[in-house]
Amino acid sequence: MMFYSFCRQWLPGSAGRLAAVLALALLAACAPRIVAPVAVAPRPAPPPLSAPQGLACYEALGAQGAAFEPAALPATAGGCHVAEAVILTRLRAALDKPATMACPLAVALADFEAQIIQPAAHRHFGHRVTMIRHYGAYGCRTINGTRKLSQHAFGRAIDISGFDLADGTRIDVKRDWRNAGARTRFLHEVARAACDSFGVVLTPNRDRSHDGHLHLDIGPDQLCGY
Ligand SMILES: [Zn+2]
Fold first, then answer.
1. Could you tell me the residue ranges of all domains in the chain?
2. Which among 213, 199, 218, 79 has a CA at the least distance from the CA of 149?
3. Tell me, what's the pLDDT at 51?
């Protein structure tokens, strides 16, 4: 663009002093370039959190400081199964009870805790989260009102019901989601951010069946139910 402006400014006055060949060369250089339009692909939906598979997943989870045991979970007759199952007992914060899930979900949770949950707790309260409360991860069941297996049936979803902080503060989704104050702001910030990190996020905003917890799963579906 700068070269094109230079040509427009100087070429008419100086053309007479230039050799005809040079002028023609300059004119050719100043001709607008025809650029073929570049096809822009529609922006795809954000992919589910990518997580390492197989042994690499266990190694990644260990490197994040999580406490867990690999578990063997045979497939059920109904089609429920968990690939690379782990029994997770703590991330940086402890889980209030062990949770059985697929290793990639555990890695996604570890990332989400480190990048979103703990920093938000420090910002809102000046304390770290010491306990993550949940209603369960793996569960052989269908999506409410359908015959389709839930991501819980594959250990790829967890229902988080609250958080405890180092000073003893309890943050409870059922009690605090619709209140005002720091607990509510914290929960909403975490839920909003979860939509950027997980495939499906369901909150009390979604329906009554999610009144007391945040459902987080790693896809393949994409839905932000915030
Ligand atoms: Zn759920």
1. 1-40, 55-225
2. 79
3. 63
pLDDT (0 to 100) of residue 50: 59
CA 178 – ligand 1 centroid, Å: 20
Secondary structure of 20-60 as H, E, C letters: HHHHHHHHHHHCCCCCCCCCCCCCCCCCCCCCCCHHHHHHH
Q: What is the tens place of the pLDDT at every residue in 164-209? A: 999 999 999 999 999 999 999 999 999 999 999 999 999 999 888 8
Report in angstroms the alpha-carbon separations of 14 from 7, 19, 27: 10, 10, 12
**CB within 5 A of ion ligand 1: which residues?**
157, 159, 215
Amino acid code (one letter) for 101: M
CA–centroid distance, 202 to ligand 1, in Å, is 8
pTM: 0.77
- Picking from 20, 14, 140, 142, the residue whose alpha carbon sits closest to that of residue 82 is 140
The arrangement of secondary structure in 55-225, i.e. its CATH architecture, is: 2-Layer Sandwich (3.30)
pLDDT digits (tens, 9 = 90+) for 10-32: 334 444 343 443 343 433 333 33
Ligand 1 centre to CA of 33 (Å) is 56
